[in-house]
From TrEMBL:
Gene that this polypeptide is encoded by: tsaD
Catalytic activity: L-threonylcarbamoyladenylate + adenosine(37) in tRNA = N(6)-L-threonylcarbamoyladenosine(37) in tRNA + AMP + H(+)
Family per record: Belongs to the KAE1 / TsaD family.
Protein name: tRNA N6-adenosine threonylcarbamoyltransferase
Domain Gcp-like: 29-317
Annotated Fe cation binding sites: H117, H121, D311
Catalytic EC class: transferase
Keywords recorded for this protein, A-Z: Acyltransferase, Cytoplasm, Iron, Metal-binding, Transferase, tRNA processing
Broad class of where this protein is predominantly found: cytoplasm
GO biological process, one term: tRNA threonylcarbamoyladenosine modification
Organism for this UniProt entry: Amycolatopsis marina
Protein function: Required for the formation of a threonylcarbamoyl group on adenosine at position 37 (t(6)A37) in tRNAs that read codons beginning with adenine. Is involved in the transfer of the threonylcarbamoyl moiety of threonylcarbamoyl-AMP (TC-AMP) to the N6 group of A37, together with TsaE and TsaB. TsaD likely plays a direct catalytic role in this reaction.
PROSITE patterns found in the cross-reference section: GLYCOPROTEASE
Pfam families in alphabetical order: TsaD
Amino acid sequence: MARIVLGIESSCDETGVGLVRLHGDGTVELLADDVASSVEQHARFGGVVPEVASRAHLEAMTPTAERALATAGLSLSDVDAIAVTAGPGLAGALLVGVAAAKAYAAALNVPLFGVNHLAGHIAVDTLQHGPLPSPCLALLVSGGHTQLLRVDDVATTITEIGSTVDDAAGEAYDKVARVLELPYPGGPPIDTAARRGNPAAIAFPRGMTGPRDAAFDFSFSGLKTAVARWVEAAERRGETIPVDDVAASFQEAVADVLTAKAVRAATEAGIGTLVISGGVAANSRLSTLAAERCVEAGIELRVPRPRLCTDNGAMIAALGAHVLAAGVKPSALDLSADPSLPV
Ligand code: KG4
Ligand code: ZN
C-alpha cells in the first residue's frame, strides 16, 4: 500500500516542505516540493545570520507546508509519516523544523523520523533517477559541507571516507566572490564569469593533493587565500582585475580536486556509481569535468537537477520514505536537534 511522507527541512536558510509517495515496491515519487528562502535577508552580511534564519523559518513554516499540501492536492489527514532534519545545521534553525514536525506527528498520530540532512542530499537523487545501487559513492558539496561518503544503504548505512579540513566548497565560492566584488551567494556569479574566462590563466593551488595529505580529504582555505593574494597584488600594481580569468582559474582548481578525488575513491573501492549533490553540484564546470572523468573511469554519474541539489523539503521526505521502508524505529516525541549530527 502506498504511503505519504511529509518532509521538513530547516537546517540553514531554506524552509522546505516536501511530500512524497512511497510505493509498495519501495520506489519513491515526488508530489510537492515547496521552499521559502531567507537568502536575500543574509546577502548584505555575505553569509547566513543564524538569528535571522530562525525567525524566517518561524514565519515561513506553516505557509510553506500549506502550499506543499495544496500542490500535491492533499490534506494533512492524508499524511502517514513525518520526517524532519534533526541535524547537522544551525541549532536555532533546526529547532523550528523539529518543533513543527513534532506538532504535526502528535496531532496526526503518525510516526516521526528525525533524519540526517547529509543523507537527505543523497536520498533526493532517488526522486529523479530511481533506486540507488549498493554501494555507491556520494560527493556532497554545499555551502556547509564537502564530503565523500560511501553509501551502502541511504536509510541506514553511510560511511564518511573524506571531508574538508577547513572551508566547504560553497563557502570558498562565497568568499572568493566577495574578493571579486560579486554578489552573495557567490556560486552562480562565479560560474557565469568563469564561462567567459580562461581556466588556465592562473595556476591556483590544488589543496590536499600532496603525497603526505589524507587521500580523500579536501582543503579550500589555501586556494581562497591564494586568490585573495593574487587580486591584492594586481591591485597594488594598479592593474584592472581580470575577473573572468580569476573566476575560471579558481573554478577549475575546485572542480579538478573534487572530481579527481571522487573518481579515485570510487575506482579504489570498486564502486560503479557516483552521485554528486548539494548546492555546488549545480556548477557547470564541476558537472562537465565529472562527466568526462567518470566516462574515462567507467563510472555511472548521477547529478540531481539543481532544484533538488540545493536544500529542500523533498530530500527529507525522500529520505523519510526510505527510512520508513527500511523498518527503522521512529523517533520519540522528545526528539531534539543535533547541530553536529554525524552521518
Ligand atoms: O546546498 P545549498 O543550497 O545550501 C547549503 O546546505 O549550504 O548550497 C549553497 C551553496 C552556496 O555556497 C552557493 O554559492 C553554492 O552552493 N552554489 C554554487 C552554484 N550554485 C550554488 N557553487 C558553484 N557553482 C554554482 N553554480
Ligand atoms: Zn544542504
